[in-house]
Design a protein that fits this description.
Layout lengths: L5 E4 L7 H8 L7 E3 L8 H8 L6 E4 L12 H15 L4 E6 L2 H14 L6 H5 L15 H11 L4 E5 L1
Parallel strand pairs: 1-3, 1-4, 2-3, 4-5
Helix pairs in contact: 3-6
Amino acid sequence: MSESQMIFHVGLHKTATSFLQRRIYPLLEGIAYAGYPPPDGQTLRRVAGLMRPGLPMLVSDEQLSGHPFRRSWIEEFETNVRGLAALFPDARIIVGFRHHRPWVISIYKQYLNKGGTRTLAAFLGLDGADGLIRERDTRFGTRLDLLEALFPGRVFVHTQ
């Protein structure tokens, strides 16, 4: 890899991101790692301070996949990864997926733990209203197709 090689771990939420950030990525040899959350929210300052000549830089931030509770999750994902591609066209991408049912349940539990009050049916829009998580937000293929189009041959998928 070139000395300016960037690797971005873009989530998704609830796919072992925290485990990777705490237990795996810091132990990788030959990689400069910028973990999440960065101190004082200074992501770019932290990345710049950790870069080392000759070492690939790994940035892990599941917020790059968008925020699941704002009803714009897939749109945020698209905006974020297009921005990464514009700034770092040769970057490599790591993205995680897990089986849909436990993934959705885990996201719903997180929503409840953060004070959410919608029922699961309302959360998913199964009650006829517009849910926080929409069916299109759960299409892994849409996300993967976009990543592969923007970073051809440089997308690593891990599954849980």
